[in-house]
Amino acid sequence: MDERPFFVGAKRFRSGHRFATMSATCQLTEEGDVNDPSEPATLKDVARVAGVALSTVSAYLNSTRKVSPALQVRIRDAVRELDYIPNFQARNLRMKRAASIGLVVPELANPYFAALAEGIESRLSGTGVTLTLSLTGSTGDREEAHASLLRRARLDGLVVISATGRTTSALLDLIERFPVVLADEQLPSLNAAFVGSDNRRGARSVADVALASGGRRPAIIAGPRSLWTAEARLSGYREALAGSGIEEHDVILERGDYTFASGLAAAMRLYPLERYDGSGPDIVIASNDLMALGVLRHLRRIGASVPEDVVVVGFDDIPVADMITPTLTTVSQPAHDIGFTATDLLLRTIDGEALADERVELPTELRVRESTR
Fold first, then answer.
1. Residue closest to 184 by CA, chosen among 120, 263, 98, 256
2. Span 320-370, pLDDT tens digits
3. HTH lacI-type domain location, by residue (predicted)?
4. What is the pTM of this model?
5. Other CB atoms within 10 Å distance of the CB of residue 26
6. What is the pLDDT of residues 151-191, one digit of tens each?
7. How far apart are CA 82 and CA 315, in angstroms?
8. Which of 270, 254, 372, 258 is nearest to 312 (CA)?
9. Element (DSSP H or E) covering residue 78
10. Between the N and C ends of the chain, which has fewer C-beta atoms within 10 Å?
């Protein structure tokens, strides 16, 4: 089996093992000189210790041609003995591969975005490609300012998670400069590859569960109008409502911005009394889990029981959704896979594939829990 060594950016000498490592790496060269163990090992050092040609070591580490199993063992042993850490950036430059990409994301406090970023990092693991992070908040001004800064950065490509759903002039300029892949949020006016989830179908499935409780006074807390995900989910909710025979004019529609605070504020508008008296919606469909958590907080505060008095559902399946009481019925998005796939498309685009028209919608999964009946 061809087992290439896995490299991480660790220090050459680890605490407690310095002298053992030094004794193992003080090797005599052919000229009788001693390698200085404080200096990083080079590819030539690996070739000399393994007793093979420099080109053979390079071919093995870069997977450019087959190397016999016996030589693979010798090279791996030399790599371990010398604690060799390859210079991935230099290798990527030589081979005309990506060396650095950027990620534009609203925030990482939202667990969904954090999981998506982890998927990006997973795809980059072992490639030597560095990741530049740009947190834009949820404002167009900051998104524009960060795009302007990224224009001057030495990047090979960019993964963009839009906070506003708007196409700025700076973002248009970025697409002219290097490859861009959109993740989670579509920007229809941009000619860029997109990876997200099937928001409409996922929204319909969770709304169907909420409506099956028998309630006839539903409320929806939708996301911002400018965001593609918000409108796709709202479309799915409306399909479910039509299927259950509830007229759209009988549905209360609130708007939030995908934050806990906006969900709490919407719930306070839906239930303005200090104590729950049975009035108000008997179903609340929130367009993401953070807003649903805000609803649950207010319902608990006013003494409403979930799901006996009010059924509540969310979207995203963030970790806390299965930790609270009652646990939240929601839709699980493959955030990690979205980040991984978006990055894979970006790297392939950088390598020359024409993928600007690629549209990937990954399936969602319904999670039925205690907040519905």
1. 120
2. 999 999 999 999 999 999 999 999 999 999 888 999 899 999 999 999 999
3. 41-95
4. 0.72
5. 11
6. 777 788 999 998 888 887 777 887 888 899 999 999 877 88
7. 50
8. 372
9. helix 69-82
10. N
